[in-house]
């Protein structure tokens, strides 16, 4: 059996297991990589929303990453919700110290329920110091507005320009996600600073389940770890997420948002 690459997720814990660390690890398993984790926040949440957030101390986040890096050869890193400025700085230090490769940043600022998951000082540190260390940043339209101080709304026509501005912030590439725009297709723009690609798939269902952003970004990290190019990794990950979004793979287990079934119908 082929030895799987190791992928690290640095993100928050979602007690409903629909997003965050739990969704990342399920996605990693579905795509055949070995997932390890450093937890940044602990949330009390369900399909209806987040009730409470507990911030893990920055030194503990750094200790988790240091300990893992001393034992594993890490092939890719997915970064999700970090919480406060000290935590962002701890992650920056760890990336630089350990020269971690294939950094995929999902800049979780505000949860779909409206709960803020990144403080304003942390947002500034992320924008100025963490973004330039990333190989790919995957903001949705609201997150892109916050990161480049652009007034909302962003239209479909504006997306290529906004993605290029994100790259100008220092990220090697930006995947700007337009899935919440009105229309029959989920439109994303992948920009590398020199070229851009339009990736569009037909929308599945009338609403977006919990954890789609976490699942997409962790899938991209998994494909990068397997040695795929950035474009291949994004394309394969969009296809994977599109399958998860089909009605037969959505799970209606709570009274709020649907959940994704990350593994059903994949090769056993």
What would your notes on this structure say?
The chain has 268 residues and is of the alpha/beta class. It has a domain at 6-138 and 214-260: Ribokinase (UDP-N-acetylmuramoyl-L-alanine:D-glutamate ligase, 3-Layer(aba) Sandwich). The chain has helices at 20-30, 58-69, 85-98, 120-130, 141-148, 159-168, 212-225, 230-245; strands spanning 6-14, 34-46, 49-55, 74-79, 103-105, 136-137, 174-177, 185-191, 196-202, 250-251, 259-260. The strands form three sheets. A six-stranded mixed beta sheet has the order 3-2-1-4-5-6. It has a three-stranded antiparallel beta sheet with strand order 7-8-9. Strands 10-11 form a two-stranded antiparallel ribbon. Helix 2 packs parallel to helix 3, helix 5 (141-148) packs across helix 6 and helix 7 packs across helix 8 (230-245). The longest helix is centred in the last third of the chain and has 16 residues, at 230-245. It is globular, with a radius of gyration of 17 Å. 49% of the residues are buried.
């Amino acid at each position: 059996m082929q030895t799987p690459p190791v992928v690290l997720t640095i993100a928050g814990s979602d007690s409903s297991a629909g997003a965050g660390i739990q969704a990342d690890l399920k996605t990693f398993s579905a795509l055949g990589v070995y997932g390890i984790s450093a937890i940044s926040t602990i949330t009390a949440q369900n399909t209806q929303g987040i009730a409470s957030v507990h911030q893990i101390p920055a030194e503990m986040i750094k200790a988790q990453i240091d300990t893992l890096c001393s034992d594993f050869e890490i092939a890719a890193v997915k970064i999700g919700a970090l919480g406060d400025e000290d935590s962002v700085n701890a992650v920056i230090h760890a990336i630089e110290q350990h020269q971690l490769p294939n950094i995929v940043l999902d800049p979780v600022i505000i949860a779909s329920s409206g709960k803020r998951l990144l403080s304003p000082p942390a947002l500034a540190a992320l924008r100025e110091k963490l973004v330039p260390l990333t190989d790919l940043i995957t903001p949705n339209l609201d997150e892109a507005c916050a990161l480049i101080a652009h007034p909302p709304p962003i239209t479909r026509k504006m997306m290529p320009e906004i993605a290029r501005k994100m790259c100008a912030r220092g990220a090697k590439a930006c995947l700007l996600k337009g899935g919440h725009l009105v229309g029959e297709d989920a439109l994303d723009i992948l920009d590398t600073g020199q070229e851009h690609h339009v990736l569009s798939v037909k929308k599945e269902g009338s609403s977006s389940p919990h954890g789609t952003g976490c699942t997409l970004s962790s899938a991209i990290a998994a494909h990068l770890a397997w040695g795929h190019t950035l474009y291949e990794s994004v394309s394969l990950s969009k296809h994977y997420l599109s399958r998860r979004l089909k009605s037969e793979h959505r799970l209606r287990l709570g009274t709020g948002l649907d959940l994704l079934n990350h593994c059903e119908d994949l090769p056993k």
